[in-house]
């Protein structure tokens, strides 16, 4: 089940005190099961090749960017799906995760990506206090996915990156068009998305193929390219053959809500 932050942030007064109390309780309930001395957190097998260690490094910040569709109707462009997939293996291994700023995401979508709903906290509407909400969650969970409610100021981003490093949590940011002002430890970008399954005026969309490029600092500085089905026909993440010609079968991605 979801553990959902039940109130909208309030600027001051008793309402704000109650909101801060909820966050403190949430952080306590979601205290990580896995030891923070474990330097790495697992990822799904198809994602292993994107990371120099084959895993998520504690204390790191990862920025995930997707495609912006024509007209700018969806700034995630597959980025949200990729961000959620990064949490799946760690969630299944016992780590608590949190999602901040994803009001349209449902339990089914999170479950299909492999997340354990019993270890998932959700804050769909963090409001103007989004940075404070994220900071409180970083204190209590292993992984946090953030879609900023407002364009982040450099000082806010810097503090969250420092807090994740200090608390040995993993911060995954899907910033959309607003961008993220701090250089992340890793940057994952989605390109060349195609939906497979629809014919000429018939059929159903069955799976989405995408290319994910990983760049970063130090050992991750050399770009790594991976071709994935996300989702695959079974709703999970699978590797895609880089040599297949999808152009004749696939349509340009018309919908990338998650």
Largest sheet: 11 strands, mixed
- Give the CA-based shape: globular
Between the first and last Cα atoms, what is the distance in angstroms?
20 Å
**Amount of beta strand:** 15-25%
CATH class of the largest domain: Alpha Beta
CATH-wise, what's the superfamily of the largest domain?
P-loop containing nucleotide triphosphate hydrolases
Mean pLDDT: 80
Structure summary, number of beta strands: 13
- As residue ranges, the low-confidence spans are 70-75, 245-258
Structural class: alpha/beta
CATH topology-level name of the largest domain: Rossmann fold
Do you know the CATH architecture of the largest domain? Answer: 3-Layer(aba) Sandwich
| Element-level helix/strand string | EHEEEHEHEHEHEEEEEE
Number of helices: 5
Report the helical percentage.
Answer: 10-25%
Rg to the nearest angstrom?
18 Å
Number of domains: 2
Give a quick precis of the structure.
With 258 residues, the protein is of the alpha/beta class. It has 5 helices and 13 strands. It has 2 domains: 2-189, P-loop containing nucleotide triphosphate hydrolases (Rossmann fold, 3-Layer(aba) Sandwich), CATH 3.40.50; 192-252, no CATH class.
Structural notes for this entry:
The protein has 2 domains: 2-189, Rossmann fold (3-Layer(aba) Sandwich); 192-252, no CATH class. It has helices at 14-29, 79-92, 107-112, 130-138, 154-167, and strands spanning 2-4, 40-41, 56-57, 61-65, 97-100, 120-123, 143-146, 170-173, 186-196, 207-216, 224-229, 238-239, 250-252. Strand 5 (97-100), helix 3 (107-112) and strand 6 (120-123) form a beta-alpha-beta unit. The strands form 2 sheets. Strands 1, 4, 5, 6, 7, 8, 9, 10, 11, 12 and 13 form an 11-stranded mixed sheet that branches. The longest helix is centred in the N-terminal third of the chain and has 16 residues, at 14-29. By secondary structure, the protein is of the alpha/beta class. It starts with a strand and ends in a 6-residue tail after the last strand. Helix 4 runs parallel beside helix 5. The protein is built from 5 helices and 13 strands. It is 23% helix and 23% strand.
């Amino acid at each position: 089940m979801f553990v959902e932050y039940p109130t909208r942030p309030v600027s001051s007064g008793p309402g704000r005190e109650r909101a801060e109390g909820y966050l403190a309780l949430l952080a306590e309930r979601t205290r990580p099961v896995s030891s923070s001395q474990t330097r790495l957190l697992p990822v799904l097998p198809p994602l292993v090749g994107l990371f120099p260690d084959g895993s998520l490094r504690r204390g790191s910040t990862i920025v995930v960017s997707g495609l912006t569709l024509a007209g700018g109707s969806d700034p995630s462009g597959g980025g949200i799906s990729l961000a959620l997939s990064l949490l799946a293996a760690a969630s299944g291994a016992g780590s608590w995760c949190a999602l901040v700023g994803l009001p349209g995401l449902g339990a089914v979508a999170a479950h299909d990506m492999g997340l354990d709903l019993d270890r998932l906290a959700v804050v769909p509407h963090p409001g103007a206090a989004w940075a404070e909400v994220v900071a409180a969650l970083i204190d209590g969970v292993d992984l946090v996915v953030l879609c900023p409610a407002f364009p982040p100021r450099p000082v806010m981003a810097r503090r969250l990156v420092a807090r994740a490093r200090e608390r040995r949590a993993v911060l995954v940011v899907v910033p959309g068009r607003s961008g993220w002002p701090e250089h992340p430890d890793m940057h994952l970008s989605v390109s060349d998305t195609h939906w497979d399954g629809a014919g000429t005026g018939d059929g159903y969309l069955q799976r989405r193929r995408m290319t994910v490029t990983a760049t970063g600092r130090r050992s991750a500085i050399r770009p790594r390219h991976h071709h994935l089905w996300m989702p695959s026909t079974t709703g999970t993440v699978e590797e895609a053959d880089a040599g297949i010609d999808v152009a004749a079968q696939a349509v340009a991605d018309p919908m990338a809500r998650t």
